[in-house]
UniProtKB/TrEMBL annotation:
Name of this chain's protein: Cytochrome c
Presence of the UniProt keyword Lyase in the record: no
Organism: Nitrosomonas communis
Signal peptide: 1-22
GO function terms (MF aspect): electron transfer activity; heme binding; iron ion binding
Length: 103
């Protein structure tokens, strides 16, 4: 039984890591990393800072997906975030969910 449990845990971890890498690639291919860095402020805030600000908010993923699609102004300073019309609603939600996993 213990071997089965360890196998399930290892498989789950591999799937989770695969999803995180895929979402990091989505962030890169969507242009997010042109202005954002995971750990440090670039043009926009660090993605970890965004995750920390919205941690625990029930509607955070939907809120951030809207900001990704429609842009934002004044939340993190004077430099506006332009809209990302080329990002689909589905990918905006995936990106928001990915950002919220960062610690």
């Amino acid at each position: 039984m213990r071997k089965v449990l360890l196998g399930v845990m290892a498989a789950s971890a591999a799937l989770w890591i695969g999803n995180v890498q895929a979402d990091a690639e989505l962030a890169k291919s969507s242009g997010c990393l042109n202005c954002h860095n995971v750990d440090t402020k670039l043009v926009g805030p660090a993605l970890k800072d965004v995750a920390a600000k919205y941690a625990g908010q029930a509607d955070a993923a939907d809120y951030l997906a809207g900001k990704i699609k429609n842009g934002s102004n004044g939340v993190w300073g004077t430099i506006p975030m332009p809209p990302n019309a080329n990002v689909s609603d589905e990918n905006a939600k995936k990106l928001a969910e990915f950002i919220l996993t960062l610690k």
